[in-house]
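Page 37, top half.
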Amino acid sequence: MEHNLTVWYGTTTEKILSWRQLRQELAGKPQDEIVKSINDWWTYSFWVKKTIDPYNHSSWPTPWELLERGEFCRSAIALGQAYTLWLTLESNAEIELWLINNFSENDIHLVVVIDQTHVLNYTMGQALTIDKCNFELLSKITKLDLAHIKI
C-alpha cells in the first residue's frame, strides 16, 4: 500500500477510513509485508513531543481517539502501530508494547516488539531486529493489559 502525508491532513473520518483501508489491504499478506507497511504508514503521522503518558496504560486512548487527535508522540506512534498489528496479524503473532529507556536516543518511550525478535519505533521509520537495539526494558504491555480498550 502506498501512503503519504496527505492522509494526516484529512478529517477524522478520512483518517479512520484510511486506517481501515490499510488493514483491509494487508489482510492475508505475509507478516513481514504487514509489519513494513504498518511501520511506513505510521511514520508519516504528525509528530509532537508528548501526547500520551507511556507509564499509565489505563489512560491511553482508543485507536479511534488517537486518529481523531491527529498528533502523535513517539509512544503514541508505537501504540497506533500495536493497535494496527493486533487488528491485522493473525492471532499467533506475539505483539507487545515495551516501555524502554532507549540509550541510543537518551529517551524513554514505547516500542512495539513482534515475536520477541523485531522492534518498531526504536529508530523512527525502521523495523529492526532486537539485537540491533540498545535499551533497558522498563515494562511490558500486552493486548490483555488493554482489555479496557475494546480493540
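Page 37, bottom half:
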Amino acid sequence: MTTTTVYDRRILDALADHGLQPTADTEPQRLRDAVRDLYKYEIRRLRSELLAGRIPKREYAGHVVALRNRYWVLSVPLPRWTNPPPPLFDSMER
C-alpha cells in the first residue's frame, strides 16, 4: 500500500524554487535530503569563492545569511511539511 502525502502549499512553493516537484508518492525525508544536499553544495561553493578572493571577507557573512534565507525550508520540522490527508469517508452516524 502506498502512502499519499499532501504537502503544505508553502513547502511546495519552496521546493519548486529549488527545482523540486514532488508527487503525492514522494517521501518528505527524501525531499529534505535533496534540499540539504543543494544547500551544502552552495555553501561550499560560496566558501570557495571567499577563499579564491572573489568575495571580500567583510561581505561573506551577508552572502551566508542570504543563502540561509533562500533555504528557509530546512528550518521547518519535517512533520510540518505535510498536511493531514482528507478523510477517506465522511463519518456517518447510523
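Margin note: Residues 27-78 form one domain.
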